[in-house]
Structure formats: C-alpha cells, structure tokens
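Module 6 notes. Inverse folding takes a fixed backbone as the condition and produces residue identities as the prediction. Think of it as a translation problem where the source language is geometry and the target language is the twenty amino acids. Below is one complete input and output pair. Work through it position by position during the lab.
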C-alpha cells in the first residue's frame, strides 16, 4: 500500500475505528463458527459506523460484520465509505470476503482504505483496488446511460 494512502487517516481516527471494531466484535453472534468479527466504516462526514458478524443456523442467511456496518452507515444517512477496519480473533490477518468487497465497492471506490486488525492492534492495510482489482460499481452504471 502506498505511503500516501496510509497517511490519509490520522492516528486518532485509526484508533477510534479500531476501538469501534473491537467493541462491535464483542457483540458478534457466532455460535457456529466461534469466529467473531467486528468492522468499523468511516463515512464521508468523518463518522464511524460499526457492525459485527451475525450467524444463522441456515448458514447463507447470516451476514458479515462489514455488511452490518454498511447498513448502520446507510441508516445514519451517509452515502460514501472512505475506510473500513476489520478485526478478527488473530493471529491470522483477515480481509473482507468477496461479497463484502463488492458491497464496500458500492459505497466507495478503489481507493477505499481496508485495514485488518486483531485484539493486539492494526496488522496490515490495502486499498480496495488491491483486494478487488478491475471492479465495477455504481459509477460504471451511470456511464452506461
């Protein structure tokens, strides 16, 4: 990831996102996988929206932490995601699943900052473009008209 992209968020914002993600992770409903995940999305107004994974006995009916956080963002009236921080149990670094990468693309662009963390701290970061190359989003549909 480029140094410019890493420096777009202040240490304070990263710390607030990290804390929100960990707090959300503590609320995860993961009775089947025992793999609690938290997410914090930073919107265009500088607000942070959090979410956790919520599993269901009918496995495809559950949803990821990023989905919950994006839902909270939309419900708060925000339209654009600038960054997301995902925290898992560690020690392995986790990234958004393919479906969540596309959901993040719906509300951001290839520059959206994706940060991976665990209870010990921030571990790694990427741009969404690095995780979802050659993606398409709502901006492509506008160009079709």
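Target side of the pair, the amino acids:
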């Amino acid at each position: 990831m480029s140094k410019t992209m890493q420096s777009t968020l202040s240490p304070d914002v990263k710390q607030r996102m990290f804390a929100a993600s960990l707090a959300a992770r503590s609320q995860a409903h993961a009775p089947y996988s025992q793999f609690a995940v938290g997410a914090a999305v930073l919107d265009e107004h500088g607000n942070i929206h959090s979410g956790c994974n919520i599993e269901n006995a009918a496995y495809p009916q559950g949803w990821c932490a990023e989905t919950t956080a994006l839902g909270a963002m939309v419900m708060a009236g925000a339209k654009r995601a600038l960054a997301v921080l995902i925290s898992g149990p560690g020690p392995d670094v986790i990234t958004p699943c393919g479906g969540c990468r596309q959901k993040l693309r719906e509300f951001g662009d290839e520059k959206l900052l994706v940060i991976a963390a665990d209870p010990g701290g921030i571990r790694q970061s990427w741009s969404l473009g690095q995780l979802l190359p050659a993606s398409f989003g709502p901006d492509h549909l506008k160009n079709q008209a």
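Reference fact for the lab report: Residues 1-6 have pLDDT under 50 and may be disordered.
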